[in-house]
């Protein structure tokens, strides 16, 4: 949009000076009535809110402004044509101000863009070089930040690793301490239990002795002991005789032990043969008895 197009569009409307003069006169005449009848104007209604205004405020016209320019009167005092004319004049003046603002903005943008394009066309290699150098500096800074972050991470990791080792050692020491205390308690408990079992065994021993050695059983036990002593003496005498005879035989022949073992084996084999012959004779006798008529 250019300034010339906006001027041609605004030429179709009335002269801004005459419009402004009529509007000012109308506004001054009606301001006294609005102070009495209409509501008080808002503080924010007179503030310019930029291009486009805000919702429910088209071109900045608000209900309070309408109360100011055309206060509430009786139907005989209000002229609809004058009211519409005043509203249209205000809308036109504000629309022209908006268009002028937009035209100035676009004109400044065109001037800036043309100057920038000329400068950029003349100094394009220098700008490219500067941009490349700036990118390289940013890349170097980013790499330095990355390396510093890696170093900090390694330091933090080492610190955390050391803390973890200390915690593990502390926990192991604590567990070993508790285990040592538990072992001491268990050892004490086992010692007390062994002492208790020993006392119970002594009690059982005393009870057994009490039940065994009574007035009625003592004479019988003496007889049994005497018999056992005699049997032990006889067995020891027989053993001594056998040992003496074995030594005598060994003195006669040093291979008496091997000969005695061979003799024992031959006797066992002979007994086995005799049993076999006896079984065969019984089978033959049974077969002869069955074959006889």
What's the main sheet like? Answer: none
Report mean pLDDT, rounded to a whole number: 75
The percent of residues in helical segments reads over 70%
Give the helix/strand class. Answer: mainly alpha
Give the distance, in angstroms, between the N- and C-terminal Cα atoms.
Answer: 154 Å
N-to-C SSE string, H for helix and E for strand: HHHHHHH
Give the low-confidence spans.
1-54
Rg over alpha carbons: 67 Å
Tell me the number of strands: 0
Output the number of helix runs: 7
Shape category: elongated
Kindly estimate the percentage of residues that lie in beta strands according to DSSP. Answer: under 5%
Description:
The protein is mainly alpha-helical. Among the domains are: 3-122, no CATH class; 217-252; 263-293. 82% of the residues lie in helices and 0% in strands. α2 (16-36) crosses α4. The N and C termini lie far apart (154 Å). The relative contact order is 0.04.
Helices and strands in order, then pairings?
Layout: H1 3-10, H2 16-36, H3 63-69, H4 80-122, H5 124-212, H6 217-252, H7 256-291
Helix pairs in contact: 2-4
GO molecular function: microtubule minus-end binding
Protein name: HAUS augmin-like complex subunit 4
InterPro entries: HAUS4
Structural key phrases:
single chain, about 290 residues, mainly alpha, about 0% strand, disordered N terminus, HAUS4, HAUS augmin-like complex subunit 4
């Amino acid at each position: 949009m250019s300034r010339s197009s906006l001027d041609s569009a605004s030429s179709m409307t009335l002269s801004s000076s005459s419009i402004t003069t009529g509007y000012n006169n109308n506004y001054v005449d009606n301001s006294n009535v609005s102070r009495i009848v209409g509501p008080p104007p808002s503080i924010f209604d007179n503030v310019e809110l930029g291009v486009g205004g805000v919702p429910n405020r088209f071109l900045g016209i608000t209900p309070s402004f309408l109360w100011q320019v055309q206060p509430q009167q009786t139907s005989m005092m209000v002229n609809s044509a004058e009211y519409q004319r005043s509203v249209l004049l205000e809308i036109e003046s504000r629309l022209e101000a908006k268009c002028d603002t937009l035209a100035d903005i676009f004109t400044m943008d065109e001037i800036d863009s043309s100057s920038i394009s000329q400068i950029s066309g003349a100094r394009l290699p220098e700008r490219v070089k500067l941009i490349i150098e700036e990118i390289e500096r940013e890349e170097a800074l980013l790499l330095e930040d990355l390396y510093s972050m890696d170093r900090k991470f390694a330091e933090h990791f080492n610190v955390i690793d050391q803390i973890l080792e200390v915690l593990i050692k502390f926990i192991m020491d604590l567990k070993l301490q508790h285990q040592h205390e538990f072992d001491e308690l268990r050892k004490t408990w086992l010692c007390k239990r062994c002492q208790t079992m020993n006392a119970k065994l002594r009690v059982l021993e005393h009870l057994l002795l009490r039940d065994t050695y009574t007035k009625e059983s003592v004479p019988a036990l003496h007889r049994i002991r005497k018999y056992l002593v005699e049997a032990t003496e006889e067995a020891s005498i027989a053993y001594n005789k056998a040992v003496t005879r074995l030594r005598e035989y060994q003195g006669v022949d040093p291979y008496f032990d091997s000969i005695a073992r061979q003799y024992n084996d031959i006797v066992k084999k002979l007994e086995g043969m005799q049993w076999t012959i006896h079984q065969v004779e019984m089978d033959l006798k049974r077969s002869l008895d069955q074959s006889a008529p």
